[in-house]
Amino acid sequence: MRPASLTWATLVLASLAAAAPSISRRNNLVVHERRAQEPRDWVLTRRLEPSAVLPMRFGLTQSNLDKVEEMLMAVSHPDSPTYGQHYSVKEVVDTFAPSAETVERVVEWLTESGIDTERLRLSKSKGWIEVDTTAEEAEALIDAEYHVYTHVETGAQQIGCHSYSVPEDIREHIDLIKPTVHFLHRVPTPDQVQTDNLMRKRSLERPSTHIKLGSKVKADGTSVNLPPSLANCDEIITLDCLRALYSIDRKPTETKKNTFGILEFTPQAFLQSDLDMFFANFSPSQVGKKPTLISIDGGVDQTNMTGFDFNGESDLDLQYAFGLTDPQPILLLQTGDLVEGASFNNWLDAVDASFCTFEGGDDPNFDGIYPDTLPGGFDKPESCGILKPPFVVSTSYGSDEASVTRAYAQRQCTEYAKLGLLGTTVLYSSGDNGVAGNGGVCLDGNGNPVTNGTGIQFNPDFPVTCPFVTGVGATQVNPGSTVNDPEGACEQVIFSGGGFSNFFEMPQYQAAAVKSFLTNHPPPFSGEQFNNSGVARGFPDLSANGANYVVAVAGEFELVFGTSCSSPVVGSMITLINDARLAAGKGPVGFINPAIYTEKFQAAFHDITMGGNQGCGTPGFTSTEGWDPVTGVGTPNFSRLLPLFLELP
């Protein structure tokens, strides 16, 4: 969907001189962004043809960004007199819209450089200016060189530039420009390869790793002969195990008012037969129940491709979210078509119309761009603001922080803060490779990826490092232990992702907890291995079990591991808390981090003091008393957490 024209800036545009016939380059250009990482396994093939059309998007510096944490704390901290007084959509848009001066200065730069005002469009939130240019025009405008890169194994192609510049006097008015330095580093899987070598874009984010064991839990049709669940929770996690571990005991009553969203990225999709197989064994009254499909940019619950790689994530998320919140309806935020796919920004577009059409960083190198012109693609306008943000959104996907630029990450992170202001709890799993990134990749001294897990620098995840989301790590019932014994950090098959951001500063709400960890339990690593500045955002924020989940996948029961098990479980508990608050005539809890870090709320968490999160050739961090970068503040005790949130206004 094309943004609205520059109607509100008509006076500004009317005062500008007529457009010059060609692009003229200013002399006072300064580098604005450089590529976060040099591409691995991609070969620079050629300069991009001068006539190639680029959808240039100029992200304008938003207003009041320096106040976003203060504003979010005011509606989220339990001691705040305005707790729970969430913003309206209009209030959020108006608060962060760029100033008239910023719009005027950037438009003036573009038109004086030779771009006719008729070509410019201003987005609905007034946050982005868009213009389609040729590569030749773009290169002259921002002093860049666009190249085509080809993947050495698959032949997939994409474009990008190493750096770009803007006039020094304009820099303070520009957050970022797209498409430029952002590069898809992940090696495409076979289903991602564009066989005709068109520049197709696929989602960078992949599900947290789920491990399929060689031996499956025995099944006979739709029934399974499992031993009593509570006696074997160290080997097999079921709904009953989770209820016992976290004292979950509530039947929802406000299901028509409450909302719980599960985010999935196509081609990952659930199978109804799997849901029914799981329900038949563990929640018989729910047989036949299915989620409400919210199709975002052509998202489809496809059934042509089946198996663990295509159904494991979605089956897991829905089976446990449904089971723990019965009879709460579940919204399935199915994002991206089967041809192009999608990224985090695409679902953010769907819940916030002001973020849409390159709002917040939609980028052809990362995000799905719709309408999709490829054969079989979603050829309708992109899904802009089609859904009111659910009260809780659980996301079991993630990418490496180092794979994006700071500007890209910051732009998206600000959007999560806006959702918090609106009253939404956004949960992200923290990763399954300990202190390493996806696939066990670490970083060298220059921040570039190093294979084989031997890098000297830890590789934190994103978006979980954004201080305005709630990061969820993984724990386990230790072998030989019961649900009545303390859990440890997950060290079976996967290691709970955790550490410190290289991009984001420590938020106010976790300052005391993180500083206590660094002072009383200083990690045995240097600043070359992790951000030990003492002022970096630490993650995760809390944890839940992430080992040995029984999941029905493609007609068979599997044992599944990952922090992506943990996220929907925490999301289910927050949904039940929201249900109780709605029943009491109150609103949803929204952003929970400022509350769970307070001293009062510590009694509502099981402190995890065993286990670590090894990676990058090291033992990683260690679980210890209080918050730690393995399991956060610990695992929730629902029976204690509920009354604390009910006490709040």
From TrEMBL:
GO terms for molecular function: metal ion binding; serine-type endopeptidase activity; tripeptidyl-peptidase activity. Pfam families: Pro-kuma_activ. It catalyses: Release of an N-terminal tripeptide from a polypeptide. The active site is at E313 (charge relay system), D317 (charge relay system), S564 (charge relay system). Signal peptide: none annotated. Residues 236-648 form the Peptidase S53 domain. One of its GO terms (cellular component) is extracellular region. Its EC number is 3.4.14.10. It is an enzyme of class 3 (hydrolase). Binds 1 Ca(2+) ion per subunit. Keywords: Calcium, Glycoprotein, Hydrolase, Metal-binding, Protease, Secreted, Serine protease, Signal, Virulence, Zymogen. This is tripeptidyl-peptidase II. It comes from Dichomitus squalens. The lineage of its organism: Eukaryota, Fungi, Dikarya, Basidiomycota, Agaricomycotina.
